[in-house]
Amino acid sequence: MVRIQFLKGHGTENDFVLLPDPGATLDLTAARVRVLCDRRAGLGADGVLRVVPAKAVEDRPSDVPEDQWFMDYRNGDGSIAEMCGNGVRVFARYLVDAGLVGEREFAIGTRAGVRTVTVGDQVTVGMGRARVTGSSLATVGGASVAGVAVHVGNPHLVCVLEDADKLASLDLTTPPAYDPDVFPDGVNVEFVVVEAPDRLRMRVHERGVGETRSCGTGTVAAVTGVLYGRGEHSGAATVDIPGGQVRVTVEPEASTLSGPAVFVARGELDQAWWEGIGE
Ligand SMILES: N[C@@H](CCC[C@H](N)C(=O)O)C(=O)O
């Protein structure tokens, strides 16, 4: 009988089920991801992080070497996404805690390429280049808001609002509408208020999940988009999200994300339940 271990953790309350899969034997179907993430029928999470050796991932990006650990990230709806900034911090904490890496600074393979991490009280991730790709509109509650499109390995649309009351009153229980010609693969939509030159408040509707308490790539996109609006390409900001606070730095060719990564539970999945999850 194969025993399937799990951990439950979060980064600023963006929560994940982490599945160690050193032998790359798990059959992680979209249906299994959906049920695992279901907050009543499963463990409940925004997404799943499968921990797998990069050499077992045939479609990994060409710059991810064979000897790295690979973050196989899935959204709660079962879809695959390129990158997850909060997830990679939780993933990094797991690798250190489990003794799977010997250093506190190391690299992790993701579908967006290699990400370097430094694990301390907080976990800092080198998020690569955050690229402004254009502008577009998001429509929420019948009103359209202009946004800056930012690519952080995955797609984002950053919409700046005038004040915190507007941000608080947004109804994100239904997905904001966006232009599918601009975002053919869907988009994560961030709504942001600039509270001080180096302080943002943000809410997010994530592709493949819904509104979450935090989105790491989204915070990097938000800082990049706000800087872009000021005609700047470098800067740093603290971002307040409903689940806590992260720190972001942006340079023309690189960005970083720092924040907490916490585990709350670990255990074993029920074998019969897992086997019984159909398509
Ligand atoms: N929560 C994540 C982003 C997860 C992927 C996203 N929903 C997508 O589909 O691109 C983060 O912390 O970055």
From TrEMBL:
InterPro entries on file: DAP_epimerase_AS (IPR018510), DAP_epimerase_DapF (IPR001653)
UniProt name for this protein: Diaminopimelate epimerase
Keyword Isomerase: yes
Keywords (A to Z) from UniProt: Amino-acid biosynthesis, Cytoplasm, Isomerase, Lysine biosynthesis
Protein role: Catalyzes the stereoinversion of LL-2,6-diaminopimelate (L,L-DAP) to meso-diaminopimelate (meso-DAP), a precursor of L-lysine and an essential component of the bacterial peptidoglycan.
Alphabetized NCBIfam families for the sequence: DapF
Subunit structure: Homodimer.
Pathway named in the protein's UniProt entry: Amino-acid biosynthesis; L-lysine biosynthesis via DAP pathway; DL-2,6-diaminopimelate from LL-2,6-diaminopimelate: step 1/1
